[in-house]
Amino acid sequence: METAVQMKMYTLTKREFLIVFAAFFGCFFVTVIIGAAGPAVLGTDTQHLGVDWTRQPPNPITPNKVTIHGKSTPGWSAFSQELWLACTIINGGFRKGDGSHRLSFSLRVEQVEGLKESGEWHTLFKGIKNYTHHRKLSCAEQCEQFMVLHLGYVDSQQYKVSFSLEHTSNLSLVTNMTFKWQYFNSQFTQLEIWFRFIFVISTFVSAFLFMQSLQSFAVGDWSIEQKWMSILLTLLVLYNDPLFMLRFLVVGNWFTRFVEVFFEATFLCALLLFWLCSYHGVRKLTRKFTTFYLPKLAIVSFVWLMALTIRAWEEYNSVSDPSYQTQLDTSGFQGLRVTLYISVGLYLLVLAYLFVRAFAEMNNLPYFGEEEQ
User: Fold this and answer.
1) Is the dihedral of CA 353, 355, 359, 364 positive or negative?
2) Does 86 score more than 80 pLDDT?
3) What 3-state DSSP class applies to 134?
4) What is the tens place of the pLDDT at every residue in 17-35?
5) pTM (2 decimals)?
6) Beta strand 132-139 with 101-115: parallel, antiparallel or unpaired?
7) 268: closest CA among 298, 232, 244, 234?
8) Spatial distance between the Cα atoms of 89 and 50, rounded to a whole number of angstroms
């Protein structure tokens, strides 16, 4: 067996173990209580809008088209974080007993305007071809709710949205709509900022104290768990996103979102790599990089690359395209998702093999499972 610095957990008494677990579950219980009693995560504003076809101007180029204008309630800020506008077609000529109908159309976001603090309206997005997406709804007495737009950031006090429904023969049935504006509650955002700040400070202090306790020993004398713990604690500080406040200072920049995604994917994949190395490292005295770490690093790196690509693509489109929806982007995500699922499946197979092998090797130890003579 390898000689290493003895870990503190090996010398803990039963009372100290109980104190550690009690502290953990106590903190977990407190966070659950705060989350349950705290402010709601999302705020919702609902508006009803009637579509009067007699007032729709004739359009010889696109006769099957209706343009709808919506205006949000004022009072939003950067603390609202994100904005969703969902729409439901109700009482659209579909009567009870008629069965289910299919309504298909092309949704085009014509224009999105925001009200600045100076009182002036400025254009955020203007309708282009990339902002047109096809929708298929199932309708009975009312149609399924569909997403009109999603803004990945909020930099205005109020918004005006113009969108059109095109290319459908049942468009005359659209007579009444319900708008639902959803956004992050500003009080919840403030609570989230405080929690992230507390987690960043606590993880940084934990990492500092852990490294301080091992500084008197050579790195070569550390156990594999201690080496990995120093790496994971450092990545955990980044996972809690110390740059979270930049999202409210530099509004509308997709790079701040990408940094958060990068930190999350890196920490989670490092945790996956840790489990592979831990189970394979049982009774391993020599761990060469090419034979021990490189194969595992290749598997986890592929998972990391796919997860990072998918999340970064989602965050980028949420900022650049107001009508983008991940669920409808099958052409852009199908290949990436299949590759990610295959990579995760391969990882689970390797982990299961190493898990069984580690316990088999522990059972073969001369002192394991034997009674004292």
Assistant:
1) positive
2) yes
3) strand
4) 788 889 888 888 888 888 8
5) 0.76
6) antiparallel
7) 232
8) 10
